[in-house]
Amino acid sequence: MFALFSALIAAGLLLACLTGYMLENYTVQLRPRGGTGQHSRGEQPPYPAGGMDNIFWFLQVSDIHISKFVDSQRAPDFQKFCTETIDVIKPEIVFVTGDLTDAKERNRIGSRQYEIEWQTYQTILKKSRVLEKTKWIDIKGNHDAFNIPSLESVNNYYRKYSAFKREGSFHYVYQTHFGNYSFICADATPSPGPKRPFNFFGLLNQNKMAELSKLASEAVHSNQTIWFSHYTTSTIISASPGIRRIMSSAIAYLCGHLHTLGGFMPVLHSRHEHGTLELELADWMDNRRYRVLVFDHDLFSFVDLKFDKWPVIVITNPKSTLYSSPVHEPLGKIKHSTHIRVLAFSPAQVTSVLIKIDGVLIGNAVHIEGPLHTLPWKAKDYSKGMHFIEVQAQDKAGRTTIIGHKFTMEEVELLTFDIMASFILQSSHYIMLRVIFILVLLANILVIIVFRYLTKPQLKESPGFFTLANFSFHVFSKTNVLYYPVLLFTCYIAVGPWFIGEIVDGYFGACFVFGIVVDGHFLEGSLTFFIGILQLTFFNIPLICYLCWCLLLRCRGAFFRSHIKYTGWIRSVSMHIIMMGLLGWQVYACYFLQKTYGTVAFFLSPVRTWSVILALVLVCKAWNLNNSAIRTFKAEMKNCPYS
Ligand SMILES: *[C@@H]1O[C@H](CO)[C@@H](O)[C@H](O)[C@H]1NC(C)=O
Ligand SMILES: *[C@@H]1O[C@H](CO)[C@@H](O)[C@H](O)[C@H]1NC(C)=O
User: Fold this and answer.
1) Are residues 553 and 495 in the same domain?
2) Residues with beta carbon inside 6 Å of ligand 2?
3) Out of 58, 207, 625, 638, which could bridge 93 as a Cys pair, Cβ 3.0 to 4.6 Å?
């Protein structure tokens, strides 16, 4: 037990170190590396001025999850987005970053592709005629890859019903007379696509990475590059050198996938080591979010928005310091600019755009063209220190919006992102999960083995809790009928198949902790490690503890029917309630397995269904043991006067 504790502490420490290492990346340098490049471009015209030039904007929306079963308002709202919102904002491009459909069964557990959901999506695009109004780039998410044996499969409805229909990674260049802008999609959806839940992490193998490197090199001459994908980089298992490194010339990486983590993280933005921003966008599904992004004189600005909330404001000059990247942007242009520039959109006419800096009203920006409003300013007056710009826009319908941000023209050491958001976006979850799994597993195995070979302590008068716990571990590890099955079962979790079943309909495969084998493909494990940690912590370890407790009582002469006499009602009842709860959880896991991967998986499942039976058998064994071993322990216990 002691070993177990120390191992867990070690695991904690290691985790802390890993975290510490990752946290290091938050402190961001505003100082450009190398000094040239973007830095010198900041000292060259064009500079932001009063006219409608060198500017364009685009939209992102993510995780739409059109569903046949839930939230009947989701699709109509999306249609309204495709008509009203698009008509008002008039974006050059719309990026839909995956999970176009929900692909979950009525019970919300199983998964499959429903053609009707895809047809609904396509109908919305057609009815709203949105494809005629803007460039619509929709990519796949993990839900769009549930239960798909191969890209050629008829169930791969993305091919048939999406607008862009482009499988795999690609490079889209938006060309204007003032510059070229690259958009690179990193397609990390697995193929074959397993059913849920073991289809959560994205995969970028060596080939896909090579392809992405090629795309990245194609984009070097573009004014700016943006990468986008469905997955956050922290939920992609990517081959060396890793996605974060090969996208390091991009100013931003746009994604979805994590929704808001159940409402806990409404804003998931961070910045990677090389300056690339990672901007996760909350979902359309429940939160009805979308994002407006702007390149204005190659300065990047964006705002995350809620559907149908007007007016929408984006301040493009001076841009936010928090979201600045000196490596990628010509930030020097701000101090040479002659005008504050704001985009204000609303279905009703925008009547005023009031601008304040550091709480002082500067003036009402003049409408130039489209959504652009500008106001002359003396940038020089703000060249020192950090300032706060606030813009209030009002429309004819009487609605107002206020937004603001900090800005500076100095090269200061910078504003940092929320620690939690940075942790979620910058760590590599699959690596952490692997490390924790291995540590918990080793601690578990070590405890079982070590007690077998340690010499048993002599019980003294009135032994305390730890002495008794220690003694019970000795009894457990030295009782062959319990020791071997538990040891083998624990090792099995790391090496054996957890279950064999229809990973994809019609295709049987095996799920191991380290990955899934199906139809001749190997899909690296990720979420499996997390489930493995839960399995060890909430099933294997409690089972061992229960067996030890039970053996200790046996040594004191108790049987199941008589044990209450030894422990008292309270302890016995609470112990059994906890154990029944944990067993219930395991039984639910078996039910979940049946619903997700089918009946065959339910029956051929050593780590789920079989483990419930194993646990019951072992518990019966422990209560009914009556061999020589237990008799010796019993004798020993008797000799020790027990308080
Ligand atoms: C954009 O790319 C095209 C084609 O590669 C090239 O001819 C053009 O000069 C580029 N424009 C700018 C402003 O760099
Ligand atoms: C885009 O890049 C070209 C070539 O470096 C440059 O001449 C042009 O001014 C840039 N566009 C903007 C808006 O800065």
Assistant:
1) yes
2) 46, 54, 178-179, 223, 297-298
3) 58
